[in-house]
Amino acid sequence: MTFEAHEDRELAGELATAAGQLLLEVRSGSGLEGKELGDAGDRRSDDFLLARLAADRPDDLVLSEESADDKRRLIAPRVWIVDPLDGTREYRTPGHADWAVHVALWSSGKLIAGAVALPALGITYVDDTAPIAPVAGLLPDPADDRPRVVVSGSRPPAFSDEVAEAVGGVVTPLGSAGAKAMAVVRGEAAAYVHAGGQYEWDSAAPVAVAQAQGLWCGRIDGSPLVYNNDNTYLPDLIICRPELTDPIVGVTSRYL
Ligand SMILES: Nc1ncnc2c1ncn2[C@@H]1O[C@H](COP(=O)(O)O)[C@@H](OP(=O)(O)O)[C@H]1O
Ligand SMILES: [Mg+2]
Predict the structure, then answer these.
(1) Is the CB of 234 under 6 A from ligand 1?
(2) Do both 121 and 159 map to the same domain?
(3) Considering the entire predicted model, what is its pTM?
(4) Angle 124-127-130 (CA atoms, 0-180°, nearest 5)?
(5) Predicted ipTM?
């Protein structure tokens, strides 16, 4: 079976949105909280995504944060890379909108489709080139007009302050790799920088969406992000407005 690019993009968007709806239902209707809520959400979303991908794309392989790694993916022509719930910590915390569902498709060395759902905001972004108007909602209104550099709230990189200084910006914590990447896509932030640990599913779909929007995406040494590796550890990442690439990489490349 072969599929057009728009069919894969539509499926990625549909699945991310529907998994996000399930996560909202688990969050509001299960009566669970804390770790149990996170685990139930992970399980429910992962089961759904795997079942739909098996039904709709039976020839493709899947790499999911929540499922055993099927190494046949290393010789497969098409691999879906999914994070059923990114920002588990925030999902478990009432009032947070910074959690996401990631669905990406890798083929022949590239990300060829991707979708990031922000279920609490009722929005799903796909790897579309249509411009996205600046929109607030993930972050509180800024105190001033300095560009925001979003970083992990729990594990900010050591270079956060130096990167912010290099772009005349302000360090801003936010949960979830997908939510941070979409803050840049939405124009709420100018850059997302990370180091110290992450996996392919944390960044694949966010990067597919951000690249389609003309944002620069790469490693902290300026090299490209490579997906569907044997070892799925992909510990660092930059997603930024293209004009900020040089000043940011100038700082981060000294932290390898
Ligand atoms: N040092 C680290 N090691 C491993 N994973 C990390 C990490 N820092 C962040 N991550 C992962 O990246 C995602 C975003 O994290 P953060 O909100 O801190 O920016 C989370 O994914 P999950 O929620 O899917 O586990 C988190 O687990
Ligand atoms: Mg994740």
Answers:
(1) no
(2) no
(3) 0.98
(4) 90
(5) 0.99
